[in-house]
From TrEMBL:
Keyword Glycosyltransferase: no
HAMAP family from the UniProt entry: tRNA_metthiotr_MiaB (MF_01864)
Reaction(s) catalysed (UniProt annotation): N(6)-dimethylallyladenosine(37) in tRNA + (sulfur carrier)-SH + AH2 + 2 S-adenosyl-L-methionine = 2-methylsulfanyl-N(6)-dimethylallyladenosine(37) in tRNA + (sulfur carrier)-H + 5'-deoxyadenosine + L-methionine + A + S-adenosyl-L-homocysteine + 2 H(+)
Cofactor(s) it depends on: [4Fe-4S] cluster
Species annotation: Paraconexibacter sp. AEG42_29
UniProt name for this protein: tRNA-2-methylthio-N(6)-dimethylallyladenosine synthase
Keywords linked to the UniProt accession: 4Fe-4S, Cytoplasm, Iron, Iron-sulfur, Metal-binding, S-adenosyl-L-methionine, Transferase, tRNA processing
PANTHER family for this protein: CDK5 REGULATORY SUBUNIT-ASSOCIATED PROTEIN 1, MITOCHONDRIAL TRNA METHYLTHIOTRANSFERASE CDK5RAP1
Amino acid sequence: MKRYHVTTFGCQMNEHDSERMKGMLESLGYQAAAEQQEADVILFNTCSIRETADSRFVAHLGHAKRVKRERPETIIGVGGCWAQSLKDEVFAQFPFVDVAFGPGQVHKLAEFLTSDSLTAQGFFEFEGFAGDLPDKRTRDHQGWVQISVGCNCNCSYCIVPQTRGREASRPFDGVVAECERLASEGVREVTLLGQNVNAYGRDLRPAKRTFAELLHAVDAVDGIERVRYTSPHPKDMKEDVILAHATLPSVCEHIHLPLQSGSSRILKAMKRTYNQERYLDRVALIREHVPDCALTTDIIVGFPGETEEDFQMTLDVCEQVGYDSAFTFVFSPRRGTEAALITEGLVPHPVKVERMERLVEVVQRRAHERAQRFVGRTMEVLVEGTSRTDPSRLRGRSRHNKTVNFTGFGQPGELVMVEIERATSQTLAGEESLLARAGVR
Ligand code: 5AD
Ligand code: SF4
């Protein structure tokens, strides 16, 4: 029995691609190995969120190199965004790598493993969706469904259009069929994935489809009780999508709406194609239709040219919106992007750090305040397992995407009602409602 080991870096899209890699390897008869040194195929699914390969990745790769020295027949593969951004240079930098492939090129890995090629190969052209490959889900009741690849935006800081290419939507019926298959296997929650999910469907022929139509179709799938998606772009956040949250029972009360900056001047330099006013207008529309909706965001601090005044506008938007949580990033130039070429107005590192600290303070304070609205409510929680900090308690997720730690009887994959007693900026704590379990709600 041959064995594989996969290490994943980066975003959910990469996690999902790794599940496909594992599923594909298992369908070829491979089994998971707990450690790299026990594996016949050692894979890395990489991210280019940093300009240079991060030290964790380099350390892992060094280890794989030692394994290969001891057992030369071991196959070492590097996939994902970082591999894509370097292409064949991967082999020049790391001669012990046998196969390199871009994001989503999982089927190429299969081709390589099943051929009797002895020479190193790189695969970087997009050819099709991995959606039809089997996957190996890390959680039995949650599934990721890729609905598009690539991105047609031109954000000046972002490497994604280079690594993941032009936007292509997956056929509508294929997405719905995959959700039906997942439901038949016991999945209750799906997350629709794409670099810009709400631009979905415009490129489909003969007939265009919309993202809102897709939400309706997935909501109608029997057995799927929660639908999430990531990431949308504020410019494509149309009223029909917001209304889907208000009217479709399975579409969760959570929207991730990347802000990036609160300053219209910086947004323009970032080529985000919306300004502060339009962004806040989207937020107002969400609050109007789905008053209780959780809002989360991504923010970049220290973009070239960002003044104290610009940064203050980011803080103002955070105060005003009151995000339920936010991913905050310090700007870092990525090879080949427009922003990496800017030489004027660069923000010194200590200033970036100081702004980041102030931003995190506002984000956390507002998240903490916002979370108090849940205290005293009885909320639906999808049980994931035991609590990470206290094994006598359970852990799950609310529809608002909050982690909930609680005492109760639920099994993984079960939807239970939990009475919320306490809330921090990050998590909720409570007790399963026994009345609800007994059928009294
Ligand atoms: N520097 C810092 N943050 C970045 N992001 C994307 N590119 C960069 C960059 N060059 C952040 C954005 C995006 C998130 C996934 O990563 O906030 O939404
Ligand atoms: Fe994901 Fe972007 Fe990292 Fe690629 S570069 S893995 S798309 S976060």
